[in-house]
Each structure stands twice: as C-alpha cells, then as structure tokens.
Amino acid sequence: MSESMFDLPPKAPPELLAEWSDLADRVCRALTRAGLPARRGDRGGGPAGSGADVHVDPFADGGGGVYVDWRTDAELTTAVVEVMEGRVDFTDPPAVVRHHRNVHRFMGEALVGILDSAGFQVEVPDPHTYGSAAYVKGLQA
C-alpha cells in the first residue's frame, strides 16, 4: 500500500525551501551567539536535546517556513508525561506540569525577543496549531 491515507499539502518549491533552510541556519547562529543551545531539529542526527529547536516546515500551505520552539530536558519532560498518564485536575495541575508550561511560555517569549533584537521578523502563530513555537518570517528590512 503505497498511497497515503491523508491529503498532504504540496511542499514548497526547492528555491523557497533553500531560502528557509538558510534562514533557519541564521536563526541557530543568532541563538547560539546569544548563549542559548540551538539545533536544527529537522535535520535529525541524534536525539533531540534541550534548548531551541529550529526547524523548517516544508509545506506550501501558508504555514510553511521557519519555526523555533523550546525543548526542556528529558528529565522534566518525562516527569510531566508520567504525571499526565494519571488523573490530572487541569484546573489545578500539579507543580511539575505548571513548571513545564511556564518554562515553555517564558522561553517562547525570550526566543521572540532575542530573535527580534538580532534582526529577525518574528511572529507568534496560532498556538492551537503550533503550540509555543515562534514563526520566523525573515530578516527585518
């Protein structure tokens, strides 16, 4: 069975993918220059570590481009997953869940501010689609 059961949007043209890839590399350099761990999460090459995860969404559906999200250390992520496997009162979540959520919120705000300061056009996309990721539109004019 070689046909996909899902209608995936078409990928962006190779020229645009190359531009986005170059932009993602620039974003990584800017973040590491600021002292943050940053890696291209879309290139694989080993387990994902904590820090800024920069990736290119290759689809030409209006959502494609460069995104940056924060990854917490595996120890914190695992602790949250273990708690979430049980019953959780989302109106008053356990401290580790609140901490994880706050880290993502604070680091997301920091990533946007740092990238803006470094000369990038940054937007906060729909959180229901992109979570806490920031969208890097390009370089400032």
Q: Characterize the overall form.
A: globular
Q: Largest sheet, order of strands side by side? A: 1-2-3-5-4
Into how many domains do the coordinates divide?
1
Average of pLDDT: 90
Radius of gyration: 17 Å
Determine the fraction of residues in helical runs and give it as a percent range.
Answer: 40-55%
How large is the count of helical segments? Answer: 4
Low-confidence stretches: none
The fraction of residues in strands falls at: 15-25%
Backbone structural class = alpha+beta
H-E order: HEEEHHEHE
Number of strands: 5
Q: Ends: how far apart?
A: 48 Å
* Biggest sheet overview: 5 strands, mixed
Folded structure, characterized:
This protein has 141 residues and is of the alpha+beta class. The protein contains four helices and five strands, in the order αβββααβαβ. It has a five-stranded mixed sheet, covered by helices on one side. Strand 2 and strand 3 form a beta hairpin. It starts with 13 loop residues before the first helix and ends with a strand.
Features:
alpha+beta, 41% helix, 5 strands, 141 residues, 4 helices, five-stranded mixed sheet
In summary, what is this structure?
With 141 residues, this protein is α+β, with helices and mostly antiparallel strands. The protein contains four helices and five strands; from the N terminus they run αβββααβαβ.
What is the strand and helix layout of this fold?
Layout (H helix, E strand, L loop, with lengths): L13 H20 L4 E3 L10 E7 L7 E7 L2 H11 L10 H23 L2 E4 L3 H4 L3 E6 L2
